[in-house]
Amino acid sequence: MSIRPDEISSVIAQEIENYQVQVEAVDVGTVISVGDGIARVYGLEKVMASELVEFPNGVYGMALNLEEGDVGIVILGPFDEIKEGDEVRRTGRILEVPVGEGFLGRVINPLGQPIDGGPPIQAAQTRPIESRAPMVLDRKHVDEPLQTGIKAIDAMIPIGRGQRELIIGDRQTGKTAIALDTIINQKDQGVLCIYCAIGQKASTVARAVQTLREHDALDYTIVVTASASDPAPLLYIAPYAACALGEYFMYNGKHALVVYDDLSKHATAYRELSLLLRRPPGREAFPGDVFYLHSRLLERAAKLSDEKRGGSLTALPLIETQAGDVAAYIPTNVISITDGQIYLETDLFYAGQRPAINVGISVSRVGGDAQIKAMKRVAGTLRLDLAQYRELAAFTQFGAEVDKVTAARLTRGARTTEILKQPQFHPIPVEKQVEILFAAVNGYLDPLPVSSLGRWESEFTAFMDHVHPEIGQTIRESGQLSDETTERLKAAIEEFLKSFQP
Questions:
Q1: Residues 66, 279: contact at Cβ < 8 Å?
Q2: Which of 153, 318, 370, 413 sits CB 3.0–4.6 Å from 366 for a disulfide?
Q3: H or E element: which one contains 464?
Q4: Is the sign of the CA dihedral 84, 89, 92, 96 positive or negative?
Q5: Catalytic residue numbers?
Q6: pTM
Q7: SS3 string of 11-41?
Q8: How far apart (Å, rounded) are the C-alpha atoms in residues 26 and 427?
């Protein structure tokens, strides 16, 4: 084989001609200490707040503390293999989560990764977990009802699409049950739901997922979970990730509901992170920006104007109180951010009043604007009547003699209270609620014994479905309770009472 020098020189000349220098500048830092899910890194001079950084073993972190000498990074995953001297690289991306309709019906972690054993999810796009709330001019007045299917709430503490309504109470008083009932009731209502479980036991989340599946609600629901065994950084970003998923639907002109269960554990996780990052503690050892932690999350709920496609994001945050103390630090913070609160009371719960809603201090700041006109007409005086009944009941429990008017009020109040009871996971359509409450408010139930009212309700709704379905259909389609519909409803109630055996 002969070597031709001219051929070799031409190849070398061609290679020199095509040679290109590619310089890639990567901002790299070095881990100087690591522990409890926090890494201190030296050298990342140009890193941004909330930027995603990558550790050698593929674990990601988020830059939170930008200090003069080093950067405090929270590690979003297992940190056992990260050690001093490891190289940390910037990604140039603010922490974001994949979003899209492909997530419906799935259980994911706060990073958008499926944890239900299903196939990988094809994301439509990504959204940063932190984004600015819609401006005032981009918003619209909240006037479209979000039906919960719970009589006591839809009648007296109505929730509108785009509202932020707090559910507050001690542990084991039915907060999660109300949230799940609301999700179940959104079937065929055009509302997509996100259930965010923060710091819950894995078994509790599994039970909630099974409940949603049994009621065919998982098809339009995304479950985002950071369980009690997950590191604090995942608990911290979980509600923001859930909100980003909801915003994807809102900005595409759809209606979304996001449940944060619960923000007490979220605040605790943030306190843990802040103390580990050596941020100065304030009241109850919470950092000074704990109010901003929740306000920047809940302000993202909105009803958008028609120019912005008219979508909405409704927020139902949950807060757990200690011994009914609604004046504690975190509860008062969230109460001041939200548009009202549904307060659940332990004494009512154990007395058999379920849902255990204390109507006296529960309030919706949107009020009747978020009700259909038929419900507003029926339930207009319901709240006042119940408040008067509770006062009279407290006064007469010691055996005081009462006049006929007071006795009639006590009779009516006892039956109204009983009819507001509702079994768990049995939401009621709004037209049936109107029919039931119409009978209670107008005294048709006064002659009946309290013990028979549960059976009366179930038999009455079945009777209306089979004999007079047109009344419910008229209420559902028009949202009104016209004089003609009222007369037909009265006649139907009287007809049923003649055949009902207490």
A1: no
A2: 370
A3: helix 453-467
A4: negative
A5: 365
A6: 0.91
A7: HHHHHHHHCCCCCCCCCEEEEEEEECCEEEE
A8: 56
Q: How long a stretch of residues is the chain?
A: 502
The count of C-alpha atoms lying within 13 angstroms of the C-alpha of 193, restricted to the half-sphere facing its C-beta, is: 30
How far CA 164 is from CA of 111, 181, 285, 299, in Å, comes to: 24, 17, 27, 8
Alpha helices in 197-284 (DSSP H): 202-214, 232-251, 263-276
Nearest to 185 by CA among 163, 218, 217: 217
- Is residue 400 over pLDDT 70? no
Give the span between the Cα atoms of 378 and 366, in whole angstroms: 18
Two tokens at 479? Answer: 């949202």
Q: What is the mean pLDDT of residues 233-262?
A: 96
Distance CA 277, CA 49 (A): 14
How far apart CA 17 and CA 435 sit, in angstroms, is: 86
For residue 255, the surrounding DSSP H or E stretch is: strand 255-261
DSSP 257: E
- DSSP-assigned letters across all residues of 284-308: GG-BTTHHHHHHHHHTT-EEB-GGG
Tokens 């709004």, located at residue: 430
* C-alpha–C-alpha distance, residues 322 and 353, integer Å: 20
Q: Is the pLDDT of residue 30 over 70?
A: yes
Burial category of 268 from C-beta neighbours within 10 Å (exposed 0-12, middle 13-18, buried 19 and up) = middle
Looking from the CA of 62 toward its CB, the CA atoms found within 13 Å total 18
pLDDT at 299: 96
- Render 193-206 in DSSP notation, one character per residue: EEEEEES--HHHHH
